[in-house]
Amino acid sequence: RSTASPASAAMLRRRAIANVARGLPELDPTGRARLVRRVFARLGALLGEVVSTLDPARPIEPLPFLAGSRECLQAAVAEGRGVVFASAHLGPWERVAASLVASGVPLTVIAREPYDPRLRRIYERLRGARGVRTVYRGASGAGVALVRVLRRGGVLGVPMDLASRVTSIAAPFLGVSAPTPVGPARLAVRTGAAVVVGTVARSPEGDLGISFVRLEPSSSEEELTARINDELSARIRAMPDAWPWMHDRWPG
Questions:
Q1: What is each CA distance from 17 to 32, 163, 230, 247, 250, in whole angstroms?
Q2: In the structure, what pLDDT confidence band is assigned to residue 202 with cuts at 50, 70 and 90?
Q3: Is the pLDDT of residue 252 over 80?
Q4: Which residues are CB-neighbours of 210 under 8 A, at least 6 positions away?
Q5: How is the beta sheet containing 194-202 ordered, strand by strand?
Q6: Residue of 102, 230, 106 lying closest to 161 (CA atoms)
Q7: pTM here?
């Protein structure tokens, strides 16, 4: 049973349209409204997919790697210094994690500590049952656990596209300055871990798959954070109806 009121739904729609105007200024008002309708419809379909995967006995359809992406990730892992995998809530992001683990990737993801213990149990059914390890950033010893993942040569998945109550810096996101978590870049700079950006994307034939790109190393947390944002922004622009524009991404 939905608890969303008509007023809250209208507020989310207004926010989504305002955010599209910021991030995709080339769209006219009619285009913005059409895009937002597609966004809500697609997120509804994704919610149905997530609910269906709560049954751990139910197989999922793994997403394939797009051309060159498996090799990109494998080469980064093979260096042995760990991999910071920056990602976004683009399309079926939960299926991305499960698909990577199913393909043998040693993946651990960072997640916000749930405000309700019942949600944590749901997350464990959704992720843990598929072999996706999780570190909750608010938990005691979380920082040490993240460094250990990288020291073991693992892949640390970090969503970076949404506003978050963590140490952040201002960096352009979809062309507009936005507070962006600096922790992933800081981890990479301090540990020497490789940095890759990965999300779902479409092949030239239009098929959905997982796409990875390696970023050049940097000694500057600010520069690396900005480059991650640039790559994620390009991916969102390529699939704008697959990103949650109703999120309160930009302050003010």
A1: 6, 18, 22, 11, 13
A2: very high
A3: no
A4: 63, 64, 65, 66, 69, 96, 99, 100, 198, 199, 200, 201
A5: 133-136, 107-111, 155-159, 83-87, 194-202, 208-215
A6: 230
A7: 0.91
